[in-house]
Amino acid sequence: MIAAIGHVALQVPNLDESVRWATNVMGLREVARESGTSYLTHGVSHHSLIYIQAGESALDHVSVEARDESSLEQLNDNLAKHGVPTIDHAREPGVTQSIRFQGPDGHVFEAFLGMSRDQPRHTGRGVQPRKFGHPMLKSENPRETQEFIEQVLGFRLSDDVGDGTLLFLRCNADHHGIGITKKNNGRFLWGPGRHGAGGNLFTYHLDPAGCVVEYYADLIKIYDEATYRPGKWEMSDYRFANLWGPGIPGHEFFDAGAKLPATGAPAGKK
247 and 152 in one domain? Predict the structure, then answer.
């Protein structure tokens, strides 16, 4: 039903500063800016990151790409089956169709079709990523959020760390397209290293709005859906976090990054 992770939209308190960081450090390019919203890309897609001017930093929405029109119809059926209403919204530039809805913990999801892919591949500055990989969602009830993403969006579980403390779910051959962490307190910067869950290289940093950005490479791919079994990790086994050395640097990992908007709804355009 879902072909790939599309992009993430973040509310930021200083749009210009966030865009400068994204273009000069993260290697993205600003494609367009409309009414306090900046659309940035890492390559040919119209956008893979959105920054929205707001009073404070927060996660606005996570966007996934549907396989085709029948997949969007199936998603609508799943939403109706689970009693989840859709959210009225202005369609983003560069896409032809989209649906938005809210998960049980307040995260807003979008599924879209028809992303234009006519941008120059080279962005020009910074450390240009090859793709947008995955968001990590903070959750008060990770299992409930996991079940929602599985039942509504058709994701599958790849790894379970600490009996639901960290969950990794996939929509395609990539080991994970969405991660879920149980909320705690703190902040962090970490890496480089190699995760045991997912097998990927990683580094983490905070952008000016306090959002955590993970750079990763060499993620495990799962091609055989029939025989794959989710990994099961204990929190006491630090190798799930880092095969190369020390594990997660304290509980800061679980609460760093952008929170949900105070209202639980996306920011309106100004």
Answer: yes
Token pair recorded at residue 201 = 């290289």
Say how far residue 20 (Cα) sits from the centre of its chain: 21
Kindly list the distances between the CA atom of residue 121 and the CA atoms of 4, 13, 28, 130, 196, in Å, as whole numbers in the listed order: 19, 29, 10, 10, 31
Q: Is 96 exposed, middle or buried (0-12, 13-18, 19+ CB in 10 A)?
A: exposed
Q: Report the candidate in 259, 164, 257, 150 with the shortest Cα–Cα distance to residue 207.
A: 257
Query: Tokens 């008060």 label which residue?
Result: 140
Say if CB 230 and CB 159 are below 8 A apart: yes
pLDDT in tens, 176-185: 999 998 875 4
Angle between helices 142-153 and 69-81 (to 10 degrees): 130
Total domains in the fold of the chain: 2
Interval 238-262: pLDDT, tens: 899 899 987 777 655 566 667 788 7
Q: In this structure, is the dihedral angle defined by the CA atoms of residues 148, 203, 184 and 233, taken in order, positive or negative?
A: positive
Q: Is residue 186 part of a domain?
A: yes
Quote the pTM value: 0.76
Q: Which residue has the tokens 């630090």?
A: 238
- Rounded Cα distance between 186 and 268, Å, is 29
The residue range of the domain holding 109 is 2-113
Q: 138 with 147: CB under 8 angstroms?
A: no
Neighbours of 128 (CB within 10 A): 15
